[in-house]
Amino acid sequence: MKNRENHKENHKTNFDKQKLFVKIMAGILALLMVAGTGITLVYALMA
Description:
single chain
């Protein structure tokens, strides 16, 4: 019984790490999109 509970805890920790990784990746992608749009606007207005 104890072994099964321990396995559940490990699985939950792994799931939390995956969730965190996905959030970080989404944040980085969003930042790149915003930065790309900003840079494009700056170059378009400078031309």
